[in-house]
Amino acid sequence: MEIVYIETSVVSLLVGHPSRDLLTAANQQVTRDWWRVRRQDFFCVASDVVRQEAAKGDPEQVRRRLQVLRELTFVEPPPRAEVLSLAFLATGALPPKAQTDAAHLAIATAAGADYLLTWNCRHLANAQILRRLEREALSRGWTLPKVCTPAELMGDSPYEDESDS
After folding, report:
1. Is the pTM of this model over 0.85?
2. What is the distance of C-alpha 143 from the center of its chain?
3. Most buried of 4, 18, 29, 129 (most Cβ within 10 A)?
């Protein structure tokens, strides 16, 4: 079974109050659909970095995020993951404030995840940044997981017109 590392933005959109912003609302719906339809097709994991981020903010949202995280397996990153995270930051592809984003990618990589599921398109699901980070990972003998959004990992989408089959 393929491994999916669930990043904090996915959990936040999964349990968040419906947004008035149309794009965010659509992303929330795709996330909920993925969770309902596709999650069971993967071995889903998270890390303490996800738990720490999920524990910040509105108390009711924190409760809901942590409830969802109880359903996941938590991976213990090896010490090499921290070295990889620092190497990602040293490339300059990520700004210094993106330490947790570098940690998510390093932990998912060290855990052997096939996918890192995220809605963070600024620092994680960003082709130009990932290209630079992939070179760094490969130079150290690591292979990055495929970083994607729930929409990209939907598989046979419930939105497809069945008459096209």
Report:
1. yes
2. 16
3. 4
pLDDT tens per residue, the chain (165 residues)?
Answer: 999 999 999 999 999 999 999 999 999 999 999 999 999 999 999 999 999 999 999 999 999 999 999 999 999 988 899 999 999 999 999 999 999 999 999 999 999 999 999 999 999 999 999 999 999 999 999 999 999 999 999 976 554 444 444
Question: Residue length, the chain?
Answer: 165
